[in-house]
Design brief:
Layout: E1 7-12, H1 16-28, E2 32-36, H2 39-45, E3 51-57, H3 65-74, E4 81-85, H4 90-98, E5 103-106, H5 111-122, H6 124-143, H7 147-157, H8 162-169, H9 173-186, H10 192-201
Helix pairs in contact: 4-10, 7-9, 8-9
Length: 211
């Protein structure tokens, strides 16, 4: 008997220890967590009519998280996806956001950060409301950037490496490191995935035209 008001989190991770601890964390705040150790098993069991979201590990043997996300789209499974990965390099983050990911969280994750992201994903309507309210704040952060910091921000969120950006702007990699840190601070972004998300939200970059 399904409870229509029940919120479900699908947790997909081939690391059994990580899977168990994530399920325990979600259940500790009253959420129903359904664990899967492979993308295939999750896809076979996924019910898109549920009030649900998906916590998806990026690197898994067989079918990785990005492939699972693609398969969800082709099957019309429209659930918010939160990627979790120990290797959050820019091209992977960009691909995930490009394909419509809700969030991208690095392992080992901060428990509160994960729970906040899950709650946001489960209340997408509320999230859209708060996103429009946060747009003014985002614009203020962007306005606080110097022209040089903006020069660094764009290629950074487009997936270029520090070395490539240094060559583009004809300055040293060390200087790019400093600018990068300042951009993250001014934008109040703790992680690069946050910065990519902000740039997309602000319309600075088209997620379909990222590298």
């Amino acid at each position: 008997m399904s409870n229509s008001g029940e919120q479900v989190v699908y947790v997909v991770d081939d690391d059994q220890g990580m899977l168990d601890s994530t399920v325990w964390l979600l259940e500790s705040v009253g959420l129903k967590a359904l664990p899967f150790t492979s993308g295939r098993a999750f896809l076979d069991a996924c019910d898109a009519s549920l009030d649900a979201c998906v916590l998806l590990d990026v690197r898994m043997p067989g079918m990785g998280g990005l492939n699972v996300q693609e398969e969800m789209r082709s099957r019309g499974l429209d659930l918010p996806v939160i990627f979790v990965s120990g290797h959050a390099d820019v091209p992977i983050v960009v691909r995930a956001f490009k394909a419509g990911a809700h969030d991208f969280i690095e392992k080992p994750y901060n428990e509160q950060l994960l729970l906040d992201s899950v709650q946001q994903a489960l209340s997408r309507v509320d999230h859209q409301r708060t996103a429009s309210g946060g747009q003014g704040q985002l614009q203020q952060c962007l306005d606080s950037l110097t022209p040089r910091e903006r020069d660094v921000l764009l290629p950074l969120v487009q997936g270029y490496t520090n070395r490539e950006i240094a060559e583009q702007l004809d300055i040293s990699v060390k200087t790019i490191d400093l600018y990068r840190a300042r951009v993250m601070k001014r934008m109040q972004a703790e992680r690069l995935p946050d910065l990519v998300g902000m740039a997309i939200a602000a319309g600075l970059v088209d997620p379909l035209k990222l590298r």
